[in-house]
Amino acid sequence: MSNTLTPNKPNFGTLPVFLTAISTILGAVMFLRFGYAVGSVGFLGTLMIIFIGHLVTIPTAMALAEIATNQKVEGGGEYFIISRSFGLNIGAAIGIALYLSQAISVAFYVIAFAESFEAVKPWIESEFGYIIYDNRLFSIPALLLLILLMVTKGAALGMKALYVVVAILAVSLVLFFMGSTPYSETFDSSQLFFTDVTSGDGFFFVFAIIFPAFTGMTAGVGLSGDLRDPKRSIPLGTLGATVMGMIVYVFIAYKLFSSASSTDLVGNQLIMGDIALWGPIIPIGLAAATISSALGSFMVAPRTIQAIAGDKVFPNRYMNFWLGRGSKRTNEPRNATIFTSFIALAFVMMGDVNAVAEVISMFFMVTYGSLCLISFMQHFAADPSYRPSFKSKWFLSLLGAVMCVFLMFKINTGYAIASIGMMVAIYFYIGSNSQASKGMASIFQGVIHQFSRRIQVFLQKTDKDLREEDWRPAVLCMSQDTFERYSALEMMKWLSDRYGFGTYIHFEKAYFSTESKAVADKKLKKLIKISSASKSNVFLETLISPSNTSAIVQAIQQPGISGQSNNTMLFEYKKGESEWLSDIVDNYSVLKTAGYDLCILGSSDKGFGYHKDIHIWIGRSDIDNANLMILLSYIILGHKDWEQGEIKIFAAFKEENLKEEQRNLIDLTSTGRLPISAKNIRVLPLEEGRRRSDLINEHSIDADLTLIGFHESIIKADRGIDFFEEYDKIGNVLFVNTVNSKSIR
To answer: What pTM, to 2 d.p., does this model score?
Structure first.
């Protein structure tokens, strides 16, 4: 994605932004539908509509002002902001929807402009004897004239016309407020609701018709590429127009409420003309407002599609070139204007203001919701590069985003689903042709980072002493042979799947240097790729040290990534190779000092077999180890790799104690609610003179994983290493030593 769009020559200040926005806000809906709203829901109901509508527009205006003061806003306005914040994939999907709403807005305002001729239809009929049934006789010629002016003269003429139009609009409002009616002389100001409302339309039905009146506050943002100082002009112009529009609407609602009955307000869409000091000014003001809004949309829409084409979003490079091309001197988007003209003409042919208004509202809601969401997420991402000179509040941005989604479905559920579905389709299409999703990932990574940081600090400040029955593994694994055998990585994957958390450290034995750091980083990337392919939830890291002991000491001082302190250390060695095993045994005292449970995985060429049988061997001295071995087996069995697996418990005792020990084991597993059948608990007699290891080698020769407990006394004995090498006939063995007792009850 390019960092900048096609350069142009900025000419405009703050006033064009304000005028474009206010002329769109105080536009067709105000003249044609506001009387209907007041007549349908009364003055307080209309105030509620204004209030709810501005729960969207004010947070959006503030979010827009915030984002605009953080970055250089170039051509494309809202599209530029969204695409540079959310990334090209999402930005283009929303941008295309935004462009369509802007292009369709041209048709909406031209259709509304044609309705201003309702006042002259009786005169035409009486003077010429011709009855006009279809307003398209006015709207189509008006659009064609507008197209001709915009293609030949561009935004410069549009801005000159905008000044004249806003002046007429201001005069029409002044004369409206100066007018009076016989009804106003008998008006009772204590009556805040009409008692004779006859429309029968619900609140949200009325809201759906009126809401487009509030959606013009971002119209001026589309001029961003033509502004001398967008960081100043966009916030001032947008917020100023939003606040002024809200104030004017409140006064208009009260004036309508106090000047006409509900029947007249609902039945006469040009009721403002009957109230105004000079009636004809209202159709003139309507014509001026609709033409100014159409001009504003006609200036903004081509610039949006020009910016989208400048990012080479469209699949055809000739289409990108043609739409993105501007005039040499001013970069006027004439090609994009021609393209927009065809879309506007197609919707003008529809001729239905209400139908077009609902389509526009859907796409504007998506745009506004996106702007609010960007602002909300940036507050939590705490990105040092996000330094806006104007700051909104995170709760206002969240409110705006939620209200957008809520109102979309309240206005028209079918249109809401269709518009969201269309943008999702565009997103996946663009995503299949583009790799640029950096912006979105950057924001989400920042949010997740801050959330994780706060949670970990919170957990550290709270009491972390867990009850015995609340124990869960927080396993730290360190291995030198990561890429020779994956058994340790597999074991960590199973232990970290649902119930625990694991940190896997690849140990690079070397002095810390530029070269060793580069090697370690390369191996970490490879390890992450392997882990991703296996869908592992293990956190991965590398550690560089010239000494095995210092590496182990550094590892056990690693903080717990999950917010819980690490409590278990896992090592792995290959059976028959004793060098790394000797280092583990020699450093047992270090691990004991750290208070870690110790697991040593002896890997064999058999691997983990069919992931079916887990054997646990319990001896008389394994009272504490037994609970940990059973818990670890249960956690491993919870992974889908072991969904066909089962746990079998074996114990070897003198023959006279067999029945008693078997009852104890059955009681242990049943009270602990463990999925171990009584038939899978076997207590074997240990014959005099026979080694326990021989019994294990005999009965677990086909096991896929065997768990055996060991004690400090074995480590300290001269035969420490010999103990681990006695189990040479079985597959992978997990030797377990617990420091603190665990409960499974």
So the answer is: 0.62
